[in-house]
Amino acid sequence: MANQDLDERTLNPPPSGDGDIETAHEEDTTPVAELEGGRVEELDPETRARRDAALRQVRKLGDPVLRASALGVERFDDVLQSEIERMGELMEDALGIGLAATQIGILHRVLVYRADPEDPLTALVNPVLEWSSEETETASEGCLSIPFVHVEVERPAEVRVRARDGRGEELEVQASGLAARVIQHEIDHLDGVLILDRISRVQRKEAMRAMREAQEAAIAGNGSDRPVPDSEAHSGASEESPGQGEGDSHADEAVPDASSGGWE
């Protein structure tokens, strides 16, 4: 699909403010964020505000765009460069380590990631998974689009991906460990696949229950109807087919109503 203006390529913008299910603590609470690898760090007010603003632009579970298959990019121009820069900034501000274009409502096969803080931001346009190892690793994954949920996901330990960069130059990325996991997670997003599809139905129900309980606890702890934001955590992955659990995983995708603390 040829690039157009961002507004034309972006679906309806997500709700902001109190309607978002990932909003800030009240000012008198201690802000914390669970980061990749299970680290927990306090956030200063400026970092927290930047993170909350970024999270309000990330589509959440239940938004149909997260189940859409992204379209290949055909035009490599300044508009695409701006899109990649915006994704990188949102990912960094949200304290994530990966982000797919569909997570911000853009149906382009574009992802960005930075698995190691010392590495430069990497953008993969039209990524194709060419090879994955027989060796697998299982580790906890979370997602900016699914707050409060972390599940154990099995994935190949190493992958080779063919893609293009933002200028259209061909890339071949050989990745292992965390980088391989992040790349696979984000390619899943581009195919409309979520981490909930890579676990059993029983595990999926448990994850949704945990999400609801965390939502309710956050509301009660804040003394308001504004829940605590969650961060995207990827750590550690045989590639299993989407929807491997029993039944239809999409049926469980109710979204917390931040304005009432209930469920839609």
Helix content: 25-40%
Order of helices and strands: HEEHHEEEEEEEHHEE
State the CATH class: Alpha Beta
Q: How many helices does DSSP assign?
A: 5
CATH homologous superfamily annotation: Peptide deformylase
SSE-based structural type: alpha+beta
What is the first-to-last residue Cα distance?
34 Å
Strand percent estimate: 15-25%
Largest sheet: 5 strands, antiparallel
The main sheet orders its strands as: 3-4-5-8-9
In CATH, the topology is named Peptide Deformylase
- Tertiary shape: globular
Number of domains: 1
- Low-pLDDT runs of 5+ residues are 1-40, 224-247, 254-264
CATH architecture verdict: Alpha-Beta Complex
Descriptive report:
Helix content is 25%, strand content 23%. The radius of gyration is 18 Å and the shape is globular. It has five helices and eleven strands. It has 264 residues and is an alpha+beta fold.
